[in-house]
Specification:
Blueprint (H helix, E strand, L loop, with lengths): L7 E8 L34 H10 L4 H4 L18 H13 L5 H7 L4 H13 L20 H8 L4 H4 L18 H13 L5 H7 L4 H12 L14 H7 L4 H4 L18 H13 L5 H7 L4 H13 L13 H12 L18 H13 L5 H7 L4 H12 L4 E7 L4
Antiparallel strand pairs: 1-2
Length: 410
């Protein structure tokens, strides 16, 4: 295979305390040729010479106050940089210098450094032995996160008597709970809590539920296989279909809503549907839009609409089961390496990083304080518990230094 001087070959990962048989020292960076200026500048720190590394050490004297004399931080919120991947370090130093990383202290520290100095600083820190996990409370395994779906199922034990197993009603007048978006479900529960929806039994039953309970219940029902309510639905379905044309804008074609704020109506119990419309009509259920629409309906039209929607096939909302910590780790390892030991000089290693710094970084990607389209997409669906668990996991992993060797043309 044809190789040029820009090709990088991962020779070995070296565990602290012993080599893997490569004969290289843990922090060594071997190379046979340096890239020309302007050619792959982001990899210049990988190609650094021993003299570059020595000069980088001199430049970093003022950095040790925060990052430690050997690049291993003892300050909360300040990351370990020893053994970090060289091209990644260089890229982030440039980001701080450009003011796009959102850290005024770091911006001031690198403001007057030349680009060549940034390369040498990155090369120096990458050459150091990485930090290893600390036996601190912050790096201990996070408590096992309860399965929210299982928790939701357990919390619905008192619901099945009225709403049916899996949320499919068998009792006329009782709504099915499948096929509803969790956001709508939670909003409906809060409406009962606040009295916006009048129902004394429901208000008393949900009084003991926490917000977490409501979220878990909503998730459980959203993930159940939807089916029509097993209750009678008298009425003219054809007439109901005609009348339903005015409802499709909010509740979707055939009663399958595409908006989390509006409930799906497909497969809903006909008697409950009719009673809800009458409640909007007389004002006992508060919603000005629904009140205006229901005001024009007589009992026959309401019955026909109920029959039409009861006959439609409900569909599952677009909701995914939350990933476990192990599943999230598998996703993160695709870029950051097994157990957070990146083999790509442009991608940061996470192993043995300070736990609070990992939490801070993930939340910065979630809020957009740090700009990265991939990390933003990955982190947006992380719950707080996921962030804490992932940070604790990677902080406990054993860090490995890697040696990169350039392979010349042959």
């Amino acid at each position: 295979m044809k190789r040029n001087t820009r090709t990088l070959l991962l020779v070995a990962g070296i565990l602290a305390g012993g080599a893997t048989g490569t004969g290289y020292s843990p922090g060594a960076t071997a190379q046979s040729a340096k890239p020309k200026s302007g050619e792959g500048d982001d990899l210049r720190a990988v190609y650094a010479t021993a003299a570059d590394v020595a000069e980088g050490r001199r430049v970093t004297e003022s950095c040790s106050r925060c990052h430690g004399p050997n690049g291993i931080s003892t300050t909360k919120g300040v990351p370990n940089v020893a053994g970090q991947r060289p091209a990644y370090l260089y890229a982030k130093l440039r980001a701080y210098q450009a003011g796009t990383r959102g850290d005024h202290a770091m911006e001031g520290a690198v403001k007057f450094l030349s680009d060549e100095a940034l390369v040498k600083v990155a090369a120096y820190y990458a050459s150091l032995e990485p930090a290893q996990p600390l036996a601190t409370d912050g790096a201990k395994a996070a408590p096992a996160r309860p399965d929210p779906v299982a928790a939701g199922k357990a919390a619905t034990a008192g619901c099945a008597g009225c709403h049916g197993e899996g949320g499919i009603s068998k009792t006329p007048g009782m709504p099915s709970l499948v096929g509803l978006d969790p956001k709508y479900f939670a909003a409906a529960i809060n409406a009962y809590r606040s009295g916006q929806r009048k129902h004394d039994i429901m208000k008393s039953l949900i009084a003991a539920l926490s917000d977490a309970d409501v979220k878990n219940i909503a998730l459980y029902y959203a993930l159940q296989k939807p089916a029509r309510a097993q209750t009678p639905a008298p009425g003219d379905q054809a007439a109901g279909k005609t009348a339903a044309a005015a409802c499709a804008g909010c509740h979707g074609d055939q009663g399958v809503s595409g908006n989390p704020a509006n409930p799906s109506l497909a497969g809903q119990d006909a008697q409950y549907f009719a009673s809800a419309l009458r409640a909007y009509k007389d004002g006992s259920r508060k919603d000005e839009t629904m009140k205006g629409l229901a005001a024009a309906l007589n009992d026959r039209a309401i019955r026909d609409l109920a029959a039409y929607y009861a006959a439609q096939q409900p569909q599952p909302p677009k909701v995914e089961k939350p990933l476990t910590t192990a599943e999230w780790v598998q996703r993160c390892d695709r870029c950051h390496g097994v157990n957070g030991n990146s083999t790509d000089p442009r991608t940061p290693a996470l192993a043995a990083q300070r736990v609070e710094y990992l939490v801070k970084g993930l939340r910065a990607y979630q809020t957009g304080a740090r700009k990265d389209s991939v990390m933003a997409a990955m982190s947006t669906s992380l719950a707080d518990a996921d962030v804490e668990a992932l940070a604790a996991y990677y902080a406990r992993q054993r860090a490995r230094a890697f040696v990169y060797v350039t392979v010349p043309y042959k």
